[in-house]
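Exercise: predict the fold of this chain.
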Amino acid sequence: MTVKISLLNERLTIQKNSVTVDSVGNHKNEWTDYFPCYTYAAASSYQQKEQQAAGITVSDDELVFTVRYCSELANLDNTHYRVMFRDEPYNITAVDRMNYQHKSLKITCEKERRDS
């Protein structure tokens, strides 16, 4: 499957989780920008899904991003990386390597919930 370049019209940034040490020696996890690229974003399903979380009904915003394969994304996983799309963080739930043809990746993500 070849990726049509004209469909890759949205910008996203892959962020990497890293440990930083402050001046006192405390270790802290931080997300740092790792790799910007263009993507085709699509909803993963046509049904609006909702869940009950702490007595509040919240929607599950799930997107599938299709990006061109590159060596920087060869080790992409859901533990060490996340996606920033339109200034919103998305946790990676699955990475489809498209039969390992090294042409494209499909990254399934869900919107990160933030505590208010």
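Check your answer against the key: Strands lie at 10-21, 27-43, 50-53, 56-59, 62-68, 81-85, 88-96, 104-111.
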